[in-house]
Structures are given as structure tokens and as C-alpha cells.
Amino acid sequence: MQVAFAQLDNHLNKGLKSLYAIHGDEPLLAQEAADAIRVMARTQGYTERTVHTVAGAHFDWSEVLAAGGNLSLFADKQIVEIRVPSGKPGKEGSAALQQLAQQSRDNDSTLTLVLLPRLDKATQSAAWFTAMESFGVTLALTPVERNALPQWIAQRLALQGLRVAAGEEGQRTLQFFADRVEGNLLAAHQEIQKLALLYPPSADQSGGELSFEQLERAVLNVARYDVFKLSEAVLAGQAERVQRMLDGLQAEGVAEVLVHYALSEDIRALVRVKDAMSQGRPLPMALREQRIWGVRERLFERVLPRLSAASLAELLQSAHLVDGIVKGLKQADWPADPWQALHRLANTLCSQCNVRK
Predict the structure, then answer these.
(1) 135 and 9 within one domain
(2) How many domains does the chain have?
(3) Final residue before a domain boundary, out of 188, 218, 248
(4) Distances (CA, A) of 247 to 190, 270, 339
(5) 22: part of which helix (H) or strand (E)?
(6) Taking the model in full, what pTM does it have?
(7) What residues contact 205, with CB distance under 8 A and at least 6 apart?
(8) In this structure, are residues 80 and 112 in contact, taking their beta carbons and an 8 Å threshold?
(9) CATH code: domain of residue 328
(10) Residues 21 and 136 both lie in one domain
């Protein structure tokens, strides 16, 4: 059974299962989901807890399999927690997890909690994962995307008795907050808790309403970016966000070559799809052939009609020149600094993606 994070509390209130598998790369959501399961388990008598971290190919799975039968003299129910940081349990682990999943049907004395990173589709199709999904409950923790982040912040503020002003002023405040914490949900949560301490609702004459100035003074810039989100921002034509992300990536020490690869790969993919369309292939077919799915697919559908073959050829040539700059070469009429050249390349592609036709 699959359960969404937002539905977890309702699910737990209806009855606790004997097996849960949590997978995803959002530490805050993983922590909250696991805590909710543990709290409910404790209220139902699961007072003992053992933790097993799968490290390396020589991990002894027999200890995990034996743990369910090793109840203490002081408890008749226990939680067996299995952490698989790599997301790959191996051959022995796969067999062990399948066995645990099957045993969970008739085992009311042991609650098994498996913690995993984000899993790709192939891994989610593996026998050990499908067994857990069949006999237990799986929770996929998807990231909070940038466009949903202001609303997420508003909801979390409300849990603390806080809110922002109504209308455009409040939206501006939430957007500012989102810019400061993008890509770092755990830090966003910590900043919200800090605001509750600085401006407790009971001491606030406005009833917990936060002003833009209060957030500007209090909320730290703890945003974290990755090159894949940069790619999405460029294709979406979000110029200001692109500049923040490039500055953030540079400050975090991300290699210039990795940023260049992300930008140039998008340009090459746009060229390939455009060429396929000029040969008579429908856009959906051309996108499938280039393995462009999900968010990128929607962005490509939006920007391709705005990009001419000539402009794409110029972008491809620019990407070639920046490749040389990143590797230490000088190019006429281009900045010698790799990051400045990357800014220029990203800005050019971003502005092209915003051209209306």
C-alpha cells in the first residue's frame, strides 16, 4: 500500500501496520514521518526499539531477521528499524526484506520501519521493494517544489500560530521567505521555529501576523541549489532566480564544468528536438525519443515554439565557447572568468526562453 505524506496522520489514526518503508531525499519529511510512526507505535505498546544500519556488502542480515524474535523481559512489542543509506540492500538484503515483509502479515509484536533514500523506478520495481509495498506501507517523500514552497511556508507558519498579511503584501513576504530557504527544507523548518520564538503570537498585538520587515531581519539566507533545478529555472525564464542560483552554486563550490554540462545539455537537447520536428516528427514523439520527461517535458513544450533554429545554433556555439573558458581558454568578446561566462550563457538562454511569438 502507498500512502502520501499528507495522509499519514489519517492513516495512522485508522490503525498501525506492521511494516513501513520511507524513501526520499527530504531529511525533514523523513524525520517527521518516522517520528509520527514511532509515536503512534509507543502509544500502542511498542516500547523497545533496535536500530540496524546497513553499511557495506558484508552486513549481517541474520541479526535483523533474529531481532523480531528477541523480545526483552520488559516488553512484548518492539520496533525494528532498518536504515539502508545506499538504497541498495544487495542480494542477501533483498531476500531478508522479502522475508520480513511476508512475516509482517502475522506479526503483531514487531513493527518494522525501513528508511531509504530516494529510489529510482527500477529500484521501486525490485522484488524486495514490491514485497514491502504488497505486505506493508510505503511512503514516497517528494521534494517541495519552488512554486509550492510559499504555500508550504504559510501552512507551517500557521501551525505556529503565525501568518503573513493578506493580499499582495503577504505574497511578497512569502516569496521572499521562499527565496531565502529554497532547496533546504530542514533549514526552512528551523527558521519558522525561530520566528515563533522571536514573535510569539501571544505577545504580538497583530495576532501573530508577521511583517515583511520582521522576516527580512530574522530569516537567514540558507538556500541550497543544485544544477538540475538551475536547468529548470533557466528553461522557465526565471532570470532573477537563475542569478541567485548561480551565485549560490559558486558559493557552495560546485564545479564550473558541472554547471556548464547542465546548461549545454539542455541546449543540445533543444537542438535535437527542433531538428526532429523539422523532419516531420510531432513534438511529443520527438521529446520521447530524446528521453525528456516530467517537468523538463512541460518546459520544452513551452519554450520550443519560441526558439528558432538560428537562435539555437547561436546558443550551441556559445556553449562551445564557454566550454573552452571553463577549461582555461580565452575567447574573444567573452569574460575570462568561468562563472561570469556561465552567467552570460545562462542569461542568454533564459532570455531566449522568454521570447514571445
Answers:
(1) yes
(2) 3
(3) 218
(4) 23, 25, 9
(5) strand 19-24
(6) 0.77
(7) none
(8) yes
(9) 1.20.272.10
(10) yes
Distance CA 180, CA 210 (A): 16
Residues 59 and 180 in one domain: no
The type of residue at 29 is L
Q: What would the grid cell of residue 273 be?
A: 528536438
Task: Name the grid cell of 69.
Answer: 524474535
Task: Let me know: does 23 contact 140? Beta carbons within 8 Å.
Answer: yes
Which residues, at least 6 apart from 312, have a Cβ–Cβ distance to it below 8 Å?
A: 267, 270, 271, 274
For the beta sheet containing 19-24, the strands, ordered from the edge strand earlier in sequence to the opposite edge, are: 48-53, 78-83, 110-116, 19-24, 137-141
Dihedral over alpha carbons 5, 10, 13, 18 (to 10 degrees): -40
* Residue 143 buriedness (CB in 10 A; 0-12 / 13-18 / 19+): middle
Are 80 and 199 in a shared domain? no
Secondary structure of residue 137 in the 3-state scheme: strand
pLDDT in tens, 112-163: 999 999 988 889 999 999 999 999 999 999 889 999 999 999 999 999 999 9
CATH at residue 200: 1.10.8.60
Among 109, 126, 141, identify where a domain stops.
141
CA distances from 202 to 34, 135, 161, 208, 210 (A): 31, 47, 9, 7, 13
**Domain housing 293:** 227-353
Residue 64: the pLDDT is 85
Strand pairing of 78-83 and 110-116?
A: parallel
Residues 81, 154 share a domain: no
